[in-house]
Design brief:
Layout: H1 2-38, H2 62-73, E1 76-81, E2 84-89, H3 92-101, H4 113-118, H5 132-145, H6 148-153, H7 155-171, E3 177-178, H8 179-196, H9 203-217, H10 221-224, H11 229-234, H12 237-261, H13 272-282, H14 291-322, H15 324-338, H16 346-349, H17 353-365, E4 375-376, E5 381-383, E6 386-388, E7 393-396, H18 398-401, H19 446-463, E8 464-468, E9 478-480, E10 484-486, E11 491-496
Parallel strand pairs: 2-7
Antiparallel strand pairs: 1-2, 3-11, 4-7, 5-6, 8-11, 9-10
The chain binds protoporphyrin IX containing FE.
Length: 497
């Protein structure tokens, strides 16, 4: 018996001793792995508070706060918003690495609570995560909804709406014109007629879309600190979102029913709901387009296309009113091209280089979505030598890049002339000017937006001499919503030319 035990203990000792190198190797590997995790070369980070991280540092103008932080921490910073790691890119080089060199890795979007509810579980284009579904719906947008040919086909709608706005201004005679209000109506009417086939200009409709835009642009605590999701419930945010979702769905259901029932009738032009229903019917794209997807895509076009277009027009007029010399230059160009015609039409726009330069300068100084739409990485990757883990959210501070003094001369000044002899434009190839983003997630509505902006601006300055009403200068303060827009409306007197 004793012999048996001693044989056993001897075997045990042999086993332990022979395993020791293996155990040491395991411990060494574990310590190497955990130390390499801690010694990853992460981008610089400002100090953070427990639970909220850097959230408190964003303030009411995150693009400005982040620009100031980048001056201390550099063009690539890693913040923590609640529990979410957020990479902030504030230079041309950083933006190019993210949206060109590693575009595929950064082509996803974070899943945010409010957009998820509003866009039918992220079945839209703008918030859908990267993958086969997004590829399908983005190609529907690029090839069928927002292609050159399709945008051209709505020329009459745009010209009619611009003409209508001019008539309203003329009617105001010598009295004050609230240009901001007219520009909101115009952009709304254009998108309604193009997307839904008719104007919806009742107060209820406008309010519903204003509430939707505000919710999409608003910050939900639960998206960043999941353990505090109850705050969104307590603050009423969840209830407001649920109400909007219900009303939007009833509205969109009605729009689709109306389109289905009128099928076969002769229509003046095919609107975007018609196009989507056609794609659904003949299964053209090789995948089944469900009703919820159609509703989410239509909502995307509204939310993505209205506020952004209106905001850039409003800032354009504001800058021109502040810079009479630029206003005069643009007026001379328009009046030379218009030559007494009743209005400037779309063919004329190609002959107006100063107009194009004004719009570029406006989009540079007043990038409507200054941080674009957040991207998210789907793999570990190195950017400018730093390790960026998979699942990191990314903000590109396009607004700060467009004011970077190492890339732009007198970056804070409004100087349209800087674009006259320059090849820089906003289509996503020049990373110093990114109002529409770049790469796979770039905006598919550039042409749609630019032609409206150019047509409206050209005609406003062609037909009227605009002057501020009883104000010394214009209040240029901005306010953050879905886009960064002017805080105060533009009130002018408009004397017919
Ligand atoms: C001045 C007007 C506009 C500006 C400044 C603008 C800007 C942007 C920006 C910054 C993005 C995100 C890019 C990124 O994440 O890298 C975007 C995406 C998008 N925009 Fe626009 N946009 C404008 C007009 C429009 C219009 C008129 C439409 C459609 C009618 C539209 C539809 C979209 C859609 C569907 C996306 C999502 C693309 C995706 O995620 O793949 N936009 N836009």
């Amino acid at each position: 018996m004793i012999e048996h035990i001693s044989i056993m203990s001897f075997t045990l000792q042999v086993l332990i001793f022979s395993s020791l190198p293996f155990i040491f190797a395991l411990l060494a590997l574990k310590s190497y792995l955990s130390s390499s995790k801690h010694h990853k070369n992460l981008p610089p980070s400002p100090p953070k508070l427990p639970l909220i991280g850097n959230l408190h540092q964003l303030g009411s103008s995150p693009h400005r706060a982040l620009q100031a932080m980048a001056q201390t921490y550099g063009p690539l910073m890693l913040l923590r918003l609640g529990s979410v790691p957020v990479l902030v890119a504030s230079s041309v080089e950083a933006a190019r690495e993210i949206m060109k060199t590693h575009d595929l890795i950064f082509a996803s979007r974070p899943s945010l609570n409010i957009p998820s509810k509003i866009f039918y579980g992220l079945k839209d284009i703008g918030f859908a995560q990267y993958g086969e579904y997004w590829r399908q719906v983005k190609s529907i947008a690029v090839l069928h909804l927002l292609s050159n040919k399709r945008v051209q086909s709505y020329r009459q709608v745009r010209e009619e709406e611009v003409d209508l706005m001019m008539k309203k201004i003329q009617k105001a005679d010598e009295s004050v014109v609230n240009l901001s209000e007219l520009l909101v109506s115009l952009t709304n009417n254009v998108i309604c007629r193009v997307a839904l086939g008719k104007r919806y200009d009742g107060r209820k409709f406008k309010e519903l879309f204003a509430r939707t835009g505000a919710l999409v642009g608003c910050f939900s605590v639960g998206s960043y600190i999941p353990s505090l999701r109850w705050v969104d419930r307590l603050s009423g945010l969840e209830r407001k979102t649920d109400e909007v979702v219900k009303e939007l769905d009833e509205f969109l259901e009605g729009v689709i029913d109306e389109h289905v029932s009128k099928k076969g009738e002769r229509v003046e032009y095919e609107d975007l709901v018609d196009v989507l229903l056609d794609i659904q019917r003949d299964n053209r794209t090789g995948f089944k387009l469900q009703k919820d997807m159609i509703k989410a895509i239509i909502l995307d076009l509204f939310i993505g296309g209205t506020d952004t277009t209106f905001t850039s027009l409003e800032w354009a007029i504001a800058e021109l009113l502040q810079h009479p010399r630029a206003m005069k230059e643009l007026q001379q160009e328009a009046r030379k091209i218009g030559q007494g015609k009743s209005m400037i039409v779309e063919e004329d726009l190609e002959k107006m280089p100063y107009l194009k330069a004004v719009l570029k300068e406006v989009l540079r100084l007043h990038t409507p979505l200054p941080l674009l739409v957040p991207h998210e990485s789907t793999q570990d990757v190195k950017v400018l030598g730093y390790d960026i883990p998979s699942g990191t959210q990314v903000y590109i501070n396009a607004w700060a890049i467009a004011r970077d003094p190492s890339k732009w001369e007198a970056p804070e000044n409004f100087i349209p002339e800087r674009f006259l002899n320059s090849s820089i434009d906003y289509k996503g190839f020049h990373f110093e000017l990114l109002p529409f983003g770049a790469g796979r997630r770039g905006c598919p509505g550039i042409q749609f937006a630019v032609v409206v902006n150019e047509l409206v601006l050209a005609n406003l300055v062609y037909k009227f001499d605009l002057a501020l009403m009883g104000q010394e200068g214009l209040d240029m303060s901005e306010i953050n919503g879905l886009t960064v827009h002017k805080k105060c409306p533009i009130l002018v007197s408009a004397n017919p030319y």
